[in-house]
Amino acid sequence: MLRRAPSRLVLVAALAVACFLPGSVASAVQGTRYHEGVSGTAGVVATESPAAARVGRAVLARGGNAIDAAVATVFALGVARPQSCGIGGGGFMVYRSPDGKVRALDFRETAPAAIKADTFAGPGLHKTFTGHLTVGVPGTLAGMASALDRFGTLSLRDALAPAAKIANDGFRVPTSLSGAMARRAKDIALFPATAAQYLKNGAPYAPGDLLVQPDLAKSLRLIQDKGISALYGGELARAIVRDMRAPRPETKDAGLLTVKDFAAYKPLWRTALHTTYRGRDVYAAPPATSGGQTMIEMLNILEGFDLKAMGAGSAQAVTAISEAQKIAWADRGAYLADPAFVAQPIAQLVSKDYAAQRRAEIDLTRAKTYAPGVFPSGAAVARRAGEDFNEHGSTTHVSVIDAKGGAVAVTCTIEQEFGSTVIAPGTGFLLNNELTDFSGPGTANQPVPGKRPRSSINPTIVVQGKAPVLVAGAAGGSTIIMGPTLAVIDTIDFGMTLPQAVDAERFDDQGTNKLTIEDTRFSPDVLNALTTTGYTLSKSGEYGPVPRMQLAGLAPGPSGLATAVSDSRSDRGSLAVPTSAPPK
Questions:
Q1: Residues 6+ apart with CB under 8 A from 101
Q2: Which of 372 and 14 is assigned the larger pLDDT?
Q3: What pLDDT is recorded for position 8?
Q4: 443 included as an active-site residue
Q5: Are strands 536-539 and 514-517 parallel, antiparallel or unpaired?
Q6: Residues 6 or more apart in contact with residue 381 via CB below 8 angstroms
Q7: Residue tagged active-site, from 110, 258, 294, 395
Q8: Quick one: average pLDDT of 50-74?
Q9: Sheet with 396-402: strands ordered across
Q10: Is 90 exceeded by the pLDDT of residue 386?
């Protein structure tokens, strides 16, 4: 049951996924990079790394479940797409088990004990989102280990083994990695261990070059032998902390992390956020990420508009969606942060009644700006909007569906491409720069010791009946939120197939009436109407660089046919398990 498109099976899969949606398949304006997905009945994995996808598919083919495959794929991404993910970073996961239970995992990085509200106010290398001061306590290793312990069947040793092998044996550098090396070459060169690993004679690796990472392989084998304590208080933590304290006259860049900070880290299982949208169940990750709440607030507002009648790509539909985004964005900036440190009115923000109140503020003939909502005393206090300082988030996402219908949406990150660009000597893995996701003093998202910086990560699972019909997530800093949001709208309201939705034109207005838009697939009349409505258009051509989505979906009904598709804006790493390799 495995074919590469175009094929009869993929067309059947597209129709099967589309048939449960209202109306017929939308006449989406396909871009020049449009491609079909892959489909099968024994499991699928969507990533933007072909090498990592092969790892996930192999786990599924051997009978592993969606958690097993997702975790092994995340570890492999840390080797094969090191500019976006790794054990020096963190992220969020939403998991739906075959019996329909949904859980959310927060493995976001945390601030060191020595951080202050104004730590990033002064000058320094951190102003370029680079260096030791920007590094939070990593959560990926602890989070993936917790997922395996609770829901997996693989051991941590076995889940790490493919990644260790890729690091030791090497892999051919894709164009995307070579380009990322070139974009950050000057920053990479600041740190000798990083330059030794990711520059070749001082220059970026060329596409097709073999990249071997022996120090990373050594660290992964150490974790296989000693468990996660190797990082959380052990040998790897000590190596990182020594590097944090090393004299560095060239950059004047000292870090704050201590071994105690590492030893104190814990991933957190949380209750997933939930809403319904036109009869489907939508599940998303709660704070410390803002992605789920912001998306759900938008969907609740939009449920009161007939987007299908407006039509995909129409000025009316773009306006309705953008105005809903601006409302949700105002609430995001005023309220959302780590819930352990800031009271926030999540129940109110995701309620249908609140959405109806805010919907009444929208005028489809005029672009507006919006204030955050006001709630009864004791629910929460609105604070000065927390600015998103770093707009260059890289990140990467994995969507997995196994043969029994288990589904995982997991987004992992080290923040921007190559994170802080710091590798502690001898460790081989890049450290995040997630502390740049904090906002200024006096905001809900200000830095505090032990706090998790607000994220925009938005892993999402949409369920119809008993089928996870959409498993979505994206990369791209604050633009991440609109990726899964538009995927929900495009599939449910406009009847698009998963390949159409992942390719469809994107737009984003984060509260300023400056609409970033992939303009070449919109008609001139629509663009003119949007300008007349009051938007300033920031045109990004046929395909902007972000958000980059990875989608999967299980067709409802008895077929058991799952489809996975990678974004037209990134490397294609979607694979399906052949039926010749049935699960246990």
A1: none
A2: 372
A3: 31
A4: no
A5: parallel
A6: 343
A7: 395
A8: 98
A9: 268-270, 102-107, 90-96, 407-413, 396-402, 43-46, 575-576
A10: no
